Each structure stands twice: as C-alpha cells, then as structure tokens.
Amino acid sequence: MEDSERQRLTAPELSWAVRALVRAAQEVDQELARRLELRPLDYSALNHVMSGSVPLGSAELSGRLGISTGSATELVDRLEEAGHLHRRPHPSDRRRKVLEPTDAAVARTLGALQPLFERLDALVEQFSPEEQAVIGRYLRAVTAHFHDFARATSAQDDPVPSHRRTPHHDHLHRPFRPVGCGPRPPLSLVARRRGRSRRQCRQRPAEGIQRRCRHGDGRTQPGRVPRSDTAPVMTGPFARTVGTWGRWVLLATAMTQAASPALSGFTGESASDPVIVPPGPFFGIWGIIVIGCVASALWGLPRERAATAPYARVQWPVSLAQLGFTAWLLAAVSSPVWSVPVFLLMLACLGVALRIVVTTPTEPLTRWLLGTSVGLYTGWAAAAVWVNTATVLPGTARTNPAYLGLLLLGAMISLVVGAVLFRAHPGFVAAGAWALLGVVVSTSAAGAGVLGIVAGAGLAVVGAAAVLVRRRHGEPMAAARFPR
Asked: Full-prediction pTM beyond 0.85?
C-alpha cells in the first residue's frame, strides 16, 4: 500500500468507523430477514439460535430477545412452521427441549452470505500480515468492550432510579406465583362461576382462574398462559374432534374418489376434444394420485398422527378436494359446464393443503408420502383446469388457436405462481411439467405447431422458475427436499 494509504486514523475516526460497521451489519441483517421472509424479531431469534455457543430453549431465547416466555414460544412456533427451526430433546435434561436450525435455513443463510464472505476474504489479502495482526487485535478488543457493556447493562436488577420510583413500579416488581402454584379457589366457587359441576371443574380446576404469570426477568404479563415447549400441537376438544372424525372423513373420501370413476361411468374419451388435451397415457397420473391419496389417508389414520400437524390441518381441505373429484366426474357426465367451477374449488382446497405441507415440519415418511400425493394432485390440477376449460368452449372456439393459446398461457402462469407459493415442491413441478409435456405431444401429433411451441415454452419457463425458487431457498433442484 502507498504511504498515503497507511496513515493512521485518530481514535474518534476509528470510533466512527466502528459505528458505521455496526450500522452496516444491521443493514445486512435486515436484508437477510427480507430474503428469508422473516420479521426482524423472528430473524433475530434465528440468528441467536444459529450463532449461539450453547443450546437455547424458549426460556433462554426470551431472555436474549427481552420478550416474555409466552411470546418467545409463539415466535418459535412460527419459525418451526416455516421450516427454519426444530425442537429436539435436551442432551442432559429430558424434560426440556432445545432449538436447532434446520439444514434448509442454514443453507439459505450461508448461500445469501457467500458473496459477502468472498469479498471480505479478498479484502483481507490487501493487507500485510503485520497490518492484519493490528486490525485483528483492535477488532477483538472492540468486541470484548461490546460484550462487557452488554453484560454490565443486563446485570442491573432495577433500571429505574430510586428517586424516580412510583407505586406503579412497585406493582410491576411485585412477585406473582406462576400459574398452577399456590392455593386454588374451592371447587364449589369455581363451579358457581362457570356453571359446571364439581366433577367437571376437578378435571380442569385452574383454567381461567389465574391469568398472571411471572417470567424469568421478573416482569408480569396478563392474558394468555404461555405454552410449554413440550406441549402437543393440538389439545382439547378440537384435537379429539380432528382425531376422531377428520381422519375417517379423509379415508372415506379417498376411497370414494378411488371408486368414483367406475361408478360414474365416465370414460374420458371424446372425439371432439381440443388439440391441447393430452393423449390418454398421460392421464395415467390419476392412478398414482388416487393411490397416493389412499395411502396417505391410511398412514394418517392413527390418532396420534391425525391430531398433529400437518395431518390435523390438511384433513378437511384434502377431503373437500377428494369429494370435488367425485362431483367433477358427475358434472362431466351430466353437465360439463359445471365441471370448471368444481375443478377451481378443488384447486383452491389443494393449494391450501399443499401450502400447509411445505411449511410444516414433520417426520420424513409423512413429509414424503403426504407431500408427494398432495403435490402431484395440486400440480396436475393447476394445469388440467385450463385444459378442462377448453373442452367446454362453445362452437368453433374449441379449435381457435388464439383461445387455446390463451388457455395454455393461463396454465403456465398458474404453474409458475404455484412454484413460488409452494417452494418449487418436486411433486407439484413434476405433475405440472407432465401435463405440459402431454400438451406438446398432442399438439405435435395434430399438426398444431404454434400451440406446441407455446406449450414447450411454458414447460421451459416452469422449469426455470422452479430452479430459481430452489436456489432462492438454498437448495438445488437436483437435491430438492421437503422442508423439515
């Protein structure tokens, strides 16, 4: 470096440079939170978990973030549903759970930071070893001072000076016993307040009586009782309803869907079909979808699995879609015009279900079985609804290349939007690509070269969108996995 570049900075200038570095690091955190589609507080929690030297639970995380334990538990639930964190048993205390980042979250974060790391590595090479030693010693000293200041600030038990204390502060620091501790009101009093019998109150005696709890930092918070890390996903009467009825409805509608083609008399063959309808062998995907729906319904039949996510949240949307399939067959035989709105309703239900599947962490076999069946179903429906619309066009519109080209464009847009919403789910992308490939084959066989080019271009666009979405989420398309 030249002598002019080796001039020493004064202490105030160095301090301002450190402040600018801190502000730039905050801007990097904001950009990472935006890329990960996280709130600033959620990203801060994820950063604490990823960079912590010791395992953290919800209680420790609440202290790091300065929020209540209940708010920290809700925050962890959001990150777990989004596939960024997962809970595992504590290595030495089986009663506790600790938080770990998922492989997908680590890959996305490191992938986003890789260009910055490369620039910093190149910047270090511009300094001599002696200069690097001086810079490193200064940065380590600054980091130590930052840590000392943070520890000294957090060590203050009462930040309010004594001459500024009011009765309100005394009330805030008055200790409250946690929920469930201390004397409880008599069961007769609880029964009178709730209009229930003593036997009913004896089952849940403390519900709603104490609504205050004390957190680890001494603050109190009225309102809802914080949930434990070991609490099940769904409890109470609704969980019993889901476990009892939802699983059986899912299985019954899956079996009805499997039997409906033979009972409805629908053949699916028509000489007047437009040229964009795929050839018969391509509709063999329905067999895979139907078998997958039955298999996933059987796998989700045990009550323990049926009452937990994602099964507890997808039972009714998937059941409605499977009933819609039967209704679609009946409409296609009797009144084809009504098959289009029925198909749209099916697609909406399947979209809700697939979004739940890709954002909910679960065991690998459930992730694969349920995700594959719902993903194939949704991807095929997203393209087939436009082909189905072509079959109900009036008169010569069925053979008009302009109308058919617009329908193919709609199918391509639906698949691209679905690839973004469903994180390029492999089942969704594969089924949509299979449908467009069928259109390419049918249009080529019919001599409709322009429509074949449109379908082929749509196939390429959908594939490119899937690759871009996978790269954005930190996973290559070749090694695509379901979110954990």
From this structure: no
